[in-house]
Amino acid sequence: MQKNIQKPELFVLGAGPGDPELMTIKGFKALQQANVILYDNLANKELLAISRDDCEKVYVGKQPYGDYTPQETIHEMIRHYAFTKGNVVRLKGGDPFIFGRGFEEIIYARQHGITTHYIPGVTSMQASGLEDIPLTHRQVSESVWMVTGTKKDGSLSADLTCAMHSNATVVIYMGMKKLAEIASAYIKAGKGDTPAAIIQHASLPNQKSAKGKVCDLEAIAADHQLTYPAIIIIGDVVNVKN
């Protein structure tokens, strides 16, 4: 007799910034019920222990600036496992809808008749508070501008020019290869002295960070041996406690 397969379902789940205790309760329950987990490079591997012993765990990560699993392959794996195993959890670092491709995977799954669910995660910029950097602070910053440091074509986002001319806190994801360009853009705008911080491995035991001026971003990273995964925070909130 053929084994009954559960209905095909995809849960796109945010793993948070790193600390497994920052996973939501709803996400925890989804991992417990998963038949298959497709997990990213930035998702803490400790979270896999939440799942059942018979749950299949498949790595589909993308090393920054290195080896990666093509998105088309991930799509095919979602479809394959959903129709052969039923309940699939796509575990992605941070929040899947903030500079992730979670919604692309949702769309793909729906187009192939797979029921979809989205479970938010704590995005890495929110871990800035662990370094006493509030993203907003009364009379200092009343808004936040999130910018990707590297667009699909490899260029620096043009939105940075707009962001730097506002009073908002600017948070740059995936920008560690663009430190020179970011600094240059601020210097040309006459804003090279704007406070800046780099936070690596946010929320993890090996978290480290450094502060300075945006014009010195490259030197800050080099002097403190900061690399990816990291976020860059620019604005007066960096020094609000001083």
Note down, in words, how this protein is organized:
The chain has helices at about 25-35, 70-85, 100-110, 160-165, 180-190, 215-225, and strands at about 10-15, 35-40, 55-60, 85-90, 115-120, 145-150, 170-175, 195-200, 210-215, 230-235. With about 240 residues, it is of the alpha/beta class. The strands form 2 sheets. A 5-stranded parallel sheet has the order 3-2-4-1-5, with helices on both faces. A 5-stranded mixed sheet has the order 6-7-10-8-9.
Helix content: 10-25%
Strand line-up across the major sheet: 3-2-4-1-5
- Helix-strand topology string: EHEEHEHEEHEHEEHE
Q: Report Rg.
A: 20 Å
Number of strands: 10
Mean pLDDT: 92
Number of helices: 6
What form results from the Cα inertia axes? elongated
Q: Identify low-pLDDT runs.
A: none
Spatial gap, N to C terminus? 70 Å
Strand residue percentage? 15-25%
Question: Mind summarizing the main beta sheet?
Answer: 5 strands, parallel
Strand-pairing-aware structural class: alpha/beta
